[in-house]
Amino acid sequence: MNFQIIGTGSSHPACSKTNDDLAKLVETSDEWITTRTGIKSRYVSTGETLTDLACEAAEHALENAATAAQELDLIICATIRGDYFTPSLACIVQQKIGASCPAFDINAACPGFIYALDVAAGYFARKTVKKVLIVAAEMMTKMVDWNDRSTCVLFGDGAGATVLAEGDSLLSIKLTAQGGTDLLNIPNVNGNSPFCDCPKNDPYLFMNGPEVYKFAVAAMERDVKEVVEMAGLTLEDISYVLPHQANLRIIDTGRKKLKIPKEKVLVNIEQHGNISSACIPTLLDELNRKSFFKRGDILALCAFGGGLTTGACILKW
Ligand code: UT7
Questions:
Q1: d(CA 304, ligand 1 centre) in Å
Q2: Are 1 and 123 in contact (CB under 8 A)?
Q3: Confidence band (pLDDT; 50, 70, 90) for 167?
Q4: What is the spatial distance between Cα 52 and Cα 213, in angstroms, rounded to a whole number?
Q5: pTM for the complete prediction?
């Protein structure tokens, strides 16, 4: 016994900025961003808080699941950084949507949604929950350095949510972590302790793009193969792959290594860019709302990012 997804939701800020808009801020071009990443535009907060996005995605998912907030037994938010260090984003969402269950955040960067599914699966296995809300929400545009063209063009803001109920959809799941700060990090801000001689640091995202690129391609191939095998399936059984939307070239190279046809690999990177943990649940919601998936479809989810972490799973829709 684990879970099935009974509702999805998503949310993004109202304002979308194109590559040409960013070319007015840093030395870049639509041509460079499109050919190197596949991104054409991304949503950026001009005032919406992460809480606003998370709550809107949560409410859409609850509505889609025909579930009242009071029915929830657990809320898990995946986020790199909530609006507050404490309360957690999940506690704030719990209050705003009118739920009364336990709530906590997890930070596993881009694979955060898949990490949250694994945590939720444990609660379902212990039979201590019947309905769980997962919200993956990220405000990446407040963590990148807008003077650094190598990172600021890649990311966007948004939130994706799912409501889980008892079921047998999760056929396999795999998480990995290869800890280290050298390839990807976002430093915390130093406080104002009079006792610490801490150097002033820039609290902005740092990424060694080419190295993370290699890690990501290898992870996609390895993890999808592993979860398919764990589920007792073959790569041909996959109906659709929902990969983390970091770079269209990573997705395409990974899919070629897996020999999966292009039409089976789902993307929305063109309009959203990289919204970290919110990528996969947002993609899931956009397609679910179009009734894209058929009952019984085999979905392979895979993500990689800061940590470095990876996560992949097979879901039967
Ligand atoms: O979600 C977390 C996981 N993140 C990822 O998976 C991201 C993985 N990495 C990537 O997707 C790619 O490495 C990037 C898109 C970040 C960069 O693409 P790249 O093909 O690896 O480019 P690069 O970093 O090797 O840079 C190539 C050139 C450099 O110029 P020189 O040294 O060749 O003269 C950069 O300075 O492109 C330059 N460049 C830019 N040029 C125009 C870097 N950013 C830009 C830019 N516009 N925005």
A1: 17
A2: no
A3: very high
A4: 32
A5: 0.97
